[in-house]
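Curious: explain these tokens?
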Amino acid sequence: MQRHINPPHYSILAVLLHWILAFALAFQMGLGWHMSGLQDALHSGLGLYVITQLHKSIGLLILLASIARLILRLYKKPPIALVDDVWAHRLSQYTHSALYIFMIATPLSGWLIVSTSKLNLDTYIFDTLYWPHIPGIVSLSDASRSALNIASLYAHEILSWAGILLFFLHIAGALRHQFFKGEDILWRIMPIIKPLGKIKARINLCLITAFLIGLFAFVQICIDGTKPIKSSVSPPKTETSLPHSEVQLLPYKNTETKPSDTQQIEENEEIIEDSDTNDEADDIARTAVSNAESITPSNWTITGPKSLSFSVKWNDDIVQGSFSDWSADIKFGSTALDKSSIKVLINLTSVTTSDATVNNIIGNADYFNFSASPEAQYISSTIKSLGDDRYQMDGMLRLKNIQQPLTIIFTLDENGNSARAKGRANINRLAHKIGVDQDEIANDVSLMFEFMAQQ
């Protein structure tokens, strides 16, 4: 059969997967290079949260592409290996095998980290496709999950550094064949079907190098763009000014556009102007008023995966936490925002953080003070549209029996009777007298939430 014959050139699919993996790995290296650097004074926990979600998405892309590449490699034979020294031939084989292990095992260890984490944060590939935790992990004991989490963290770090070495070793081998041994090897993995020649090989190599350097620089720019906006406990004064607590979200695009009450009234006014009689105009006006008054918000119930988490800089680390027990009473309608309301109740005692020391003290009187105020409450006062499925919600947060105004910016992706909501805000901990004398804790606490709901 044809698949048992060694071709002179890799297949188009193999070439495509090869370069997807090459550029994804280069991007991931640039991302991982600065992830630890996010824990400095210039970046909040929210910045680290956003970058971590992107890191997980790229990792899952690498996992899926690597599995596809391995299956293709087993099914379709690659070109015949070039004649080389025994040591070089064996080193090449070991490097290729190790690369496949690295590209599959590293994202798997990352998946295990997320699945065993106490934060229990959901994963959405590129903020769109839900990716579940590893099946069966939730049934393990806390001790087993903690041990697995620590082991997977060490494995992920070791594999990452080993992968960087393998990545450059693989490149060095290709350059050795192409330029030091005079073998035109690059054309076999380029998206062409004829040899490159020395000049074209150098040109393509320069273009690839420039692209990889540009990709690395692009990652740094993206990371620098995640610096948080300073928060304030005061709500915005005008309709046009954006609140300090707003964080730019990745907007969800909804293909269904819903006319607002204002648009509907304007359309009815145009009809009134064209009416032939005053009686007809009066009937239309009465109908418009009746329709506007009859529009009411819908009751929504949280049904799918949900998360409520926070991040704060504590000394030189970012402490991340989440609440496992919280509920929301939601009455919302995009055409009835003036009548919409949201009330959220949070069981503070259900909090878990990424730091064992913080877990031991967070319930004390200096912090959440579980004994005096075991519950936090947020009640909205106004909700308005910002366009592109984005909304601004102003309300009051009662935390430690202290009420302070809080503005939340969220997106809502509606699909029939179901919807996905996602939002963020910044809370000033000092306004609620949390850790008042603790200067090592950043004042701004980044709050993130996400959930699925149905009418």
